[in-house]
Design brief:
Helix 16 packs antiparallel against helix 19. Helix 6 links the parallel strand 2 and strand 3. The longest helix has 18 residues. The protein has 4 domains: 182 residues, P-loop containing nucleotide triphosphate hydrolases (Rossmann fold); 69 residues, Helicase, Ruva Protein, domain 3 (Orthogonal Bundle), CATH 1.10.8.60; 90 residues, Up-down Bundle (Zinc Finger, Delta Prime, domain 3); 77 residues, DNA polymerase III clamp loader subunits, C-terminal domain (post-AAA+ oligomerization domain-like), CATH 1.10.3710.10. It is of the alpha/beta class. It is 46% helix and 6% strand. The strands form 2 sheets. Strands 2-3-4-1-5 form a 5-stranded parallel sheet, with helices on both faces. Strands 6-7 form a two-stranded parallel ribbon. The protein has 21 helices and 7 strands.
């Protein structure tokens, strides 16, 4: 369960309710703690007891790493801060990209009340109570309230409806955070009254900056340990664009070494129980592994294919790249032997976009298993490449006159459409007629195999071709 914030008491750096419940934070650093964040109010905790990710919470917009497209001059968040403009925002992005951070920073730098509600643990009663309190505060003192709803997609329609009056009348500055596509998970009236801001996974340079700040800053590790380049690379790969995960893993490694020690890849592996996968996304490993991945699927070795999938995911390969390769493979090596393979591959690619890793690993695995076990045929790629080869050789020629467009005035006078036979007027919907230009008439590009579902097309195609050619 997520602990509830006192009025004006922000809770979490990022988006993990469990983490916030374990170590709620204070509003800012305390001079008495040497620059470290003060402990939870009323609990007697010290800043050192808080997770590293909480201690390293940015205190100003300029300290926020990444999301440059949202933080530049004139952007909605800047207006909210610099001009103190009341507005409502929906922040959409993967975990650990800074949704809760942005909401918390906005409340700090504008001196607004900050109220955090978790859609996981709070309901309509809490929402209405906080809105009533915000209205009274606004009316009596003029002080505005930031109402931050984490995991807002977990609220049902009725619960989201309860937010509408406050958003409509600007009794609060509503900020909703979601990892789900808001067009599917947030009701239209609430979405239409809010600005939708999309947060991107942090890039490698952003994560390196997060790590280096945590190593040097007194709120973090204060120079107590160092991180060698190989361990830093491994840490960035493990993070998958998630700043919270990065700092959690760094803290775990720092706890197992002495002051002044260097954290190397071996220490990091042991601390987080994750082996360092030797994989360069721009080098030979990238091409070798993806080649072995596709050839394993083509060869129907589902176990080897899953191994290479896991290897790429663990090494931080772009899941969209993997999904694209599966879509190509579905037509290139399975094709009409199992027409549903392409549907599965496309669905996996959509899942990657909608869900993201780590959950989308399941969707990718399903597609890999489907494609690996499907009957194989390369007839589709052979057909299209054969047709392309003839076109590139100049074997094109004019379209037969009876197939040319005959809809415009005067077309009939020049013979367009003359002699065309409407297929639906004939038995079986097929009639003897030339469709291809003379240069390639009689060419057979598609040659179905007898594998899987494609076997039935062999006989169907033979019958169709015999009618078309009058055999």
């Amino acid at each position: 369960m997520t602990s509830r914030a006192e009025p004006g008491q922000p809770e979490g750096l990022f988006d993990d309710p469990a983490e916030e419940a374990a170590a709620p934070s204070a509003a800012g650093p305390s001079p008495s703690t040497g620059g470290r964040a003060a402990g939870p109010a009323g609990r007697g905790g010290s800043g050192a007891e808080q997770p590293l990710a909480v201690r390293m919470r940015p205190r100003a917009l300029d300290e926020v790493v990444g999301q440059a497209h949202l933080l530049g001059p004139g952007t909605p968040i800047r207006q909210l801060v610099d001009r103190d403009v009341p507005m409502s925002l929906v922040l959409w992005g993967p975990p650990g990209t800074g949704k809760t951070t942005l909401a918390t920073v906005v409340s700090h730098v504008t001196s607004r009340r900050f109220v955090e509600i978790s859609a996981v643990s709070d309901g309509v009663k809490r929402v209405r109570a906080e809105i009533d309190l915000a209205r009274r505060e606004l009316g009596m003192t003029g002080r505005q309230t930031v109402l931050f709803v984490d995991e807002v997609h977990r609220f049902n329609k009725a619960q989201q409806d309860a937010l509408l009056p406050a958003v409509e009348n600007r009794w609060v500055s509503f900020i909703g955070a979601t990892t789900e596509n808001p067009f599917f998970s947030v009701i239209s009236p609430l979405l239409s009254r809010s600005l939708l801001l999309t947060l991107e996974p942090l890039g490698e340079d952003d994560l390196r900056e997060v790590v280096r700040r945590a190593l040097a800053d007194e709120r973090g590790l204060g120079g107590r340990v160092r991180l060698d380049p190989a361990a830093e690379d491994h840490l960035i790969r493990l993070a998958g664009g998630d700043a919270r995960r990065t700092l959690t893993y760094l803290e775990a490694a720092a706890l197992v070494v002495d002051d002044g020690a260097v954290i190397d890849a071996d220490v990091l592996e042991k601390a987080v129980d994750r082996a360092a996968v030797r994989y360069d996304r721009e080098g030979d490993q990238h091409y070798d592994v993806i080649s072995a991945f596709i050839k394993s699927i083509r060869g129907s070795d589902v176990d080897a294919a899953l191994h290479y999938l896991a290897r790429m995911i663990e090494a931080g390969e772009d899941a969209r790249f993997i999904a694209r390769r599966l879509i190509v493979h579905a037509s290139e090596d399975v094709g009409m032997a199992d027409p549903t393979a392409l549907q599965t591959a496309v669905a996996a690619a959509q899942a990657v976009e909608f869900v993201g890793l780590p959950e989308a690993r399941i969707n990718l695995a399903q597609a890999v298993i489907h494609l690996s076990l499907a009957p194989k045929s390369n007839a589709v790629i052979m057909a299209v490449d054969g047709a392309l080869g003839d076109v590139r050789k100049g074997l094109a020629g004019p379209v037969p006159g009876h197939l040319r467009d005959a809809h415009y005035k005067g077309a009939a006078k020049i013979g367009h459409g003359k002699g065309y036979k409407y297929a639906h007027d004939h038995p079986g919907g097929v009639v003897r007629q030339q469709y291809a230009p003379d240069a390639v008439d009689g060419r057979e590009y598609y040659r179905p195999t007898r594998h899987g579902a494609e076997s039935r097309f062999t006989e169907v195609l033979a019958r169709i071709r015999s009618v078309l050619r009058g055999a």
